[in-house]
Amino acid sequence: MNSPTTRPTDIRPFRAALPQAALDDLNHRLERTRWPDDLPGAGWEYGVPPAYLRELAQHWRTGFDWRAHEARLNEFPQFLTEIDGAQVHFLHVTSPEPDATPLILTHGWPGSVLEFLDVIGPLTDPRAHGGDPADAFHVVIPSIPGFGFSGPTRETHWDYRRVARAWAELMERLGYHRYGAQGGDFGSGISRELGLIAPERLIGIHLNSPPTFPTGDASTLGELDRERLGSWTRHQTETSGYVALQSTRPQTLAYALSDSPVGQLAWIVEKFKEWTDSTGTPESAVDRDHMLSNVTLYWLTGTAGSSARLYKESARTWAAAEVSEVPTGFAVFPHDVTLPVRAFAEELDHIVHWTEMPRGGHFAAMEEPDLLTTDIRVFFRALAGFRQNTGPGETTA
Fold this sequence. Notes:
Blueprint: E1 12-14, H1 20-31, H2 50-62, H3 66-73, E2 78-83, E3 86-93, E4 101-106, H4 117-124, E5 137-142, H5 160-173, E6 179-183, H6 186-197, E7 202-207, H7 223-239, H8 241-246, H9 250-259, H10 261-274, H11 288-301, H12 304-315, E8 327-332, H13 342-348, E9 350-356, H14 364-367, H15 369-382
Parallel strand pairs: 4-5, 4-6, 6-7, 7-8, 8-9
Antiparallel strand pairs: 1-2, 2-3, 3-5
C-alpha cells in the first residue's frame, strides 16, 4: 500500500453546492415510491413501519429544506485534499483562543460530519458559550473516505486502519504535531488506531462508543459489566443484520439504496430508532430535520455503497486489539446499542477518565451535544500538561 504523497499546498477550499437537478430527481423519486405491504400490529419489530415511513418520506419531500442545511454547513470553513489516492473533505474551524488544543473528531456509519455541527461552536469558542476559554479547541472534522464529500472511494482496502493513517497525515499537513482525538462508532476505532499509529502525537483519546469487540474472561466481571457484555449478545442476535450484509456483500446492497431514496431512508432511520435514547420514534431523540440532513447527504453524494464498504474492508483486518498507552476517556451513553465493558477496556487502554451519562445514545453529538461537549472539556483539561501545542497550520491553497 502506498504511503501518502500529497503536498500540504494541495489543500483547497470547498463549499457544498449540490445541483438542483439532484434535488428535483430526489423529489420525483419520492413521489413515485412503490411501497411494500404492511403487517398490521407489527410495529418496529419487523423493521421500520410503513405508516411511519410514509409520513416521514412525505415530510422529506414537502417539508424538508436541504438548502438550509447546506447553508449551515457552509458557515464553517471546509476543504478538500487528496491523501493516499482518496479525496478527503474536512471542516477546519480554528478557535479565537491562540492556545487552543487541536482536536480531530471522527464520525461513523450511518453518520457524517453533519453530526458535529452543534458542538463546533462550544468547542472552538467556549468563551462565547458560557465556558472557560482555557477549554478551547481547534477542530478538524473529516469525512471518512467513501462517505459524503469524501466519497465514493475508487479502490479497495480502505479499512479503518488506513483511515487512521490518513488522519495522521492530515493533521501533520495542517501543522498539528500534538493533538487529541474523539469519536464514536467507526470513529471510535479510527481514533484509537490513530493512537497506535502515532502515540507520540496524541494528547489523549476521548470515545463515546466501544472501539473494539469486548474480549476476556467473563467469569471475572462484575454485575454491570456482565450486563454490558449482554448488550453485545443482544446486538448480534437482534439488530446486527446490517453488519452481516455490509461486511460481506455491500455492492449488492448498493443497488437498492442508490436507486430508492425511501430504501436509503429506511436503512438509516432504523438505526436512529434502535441506537438512540428514543421513545416511540427517532424524533424523540434526534431532531427530525437534522436526521434527514444526514440521510440526504448520503443520497445526494451517492455514497450508500462506498460507505458500506468500510465494513467489508475492516472485516478483513478485525483482530485482537493492540494495547494502547495513550490516555483514554470514555463517555458512556446508556442507550447506545452496545456498551463498553470497563474491565475489558482497562486491559487494552490506558483509561484515565470514565463518565456514566444520565441519558443519550449512539449519536451523542446530535442527541446530547451539551453533555458530550462538557465531557470532552473535562477530559482534556486534566491532560493540559501534555498539550505542547504548536498551533494551527495554513489551510488555504
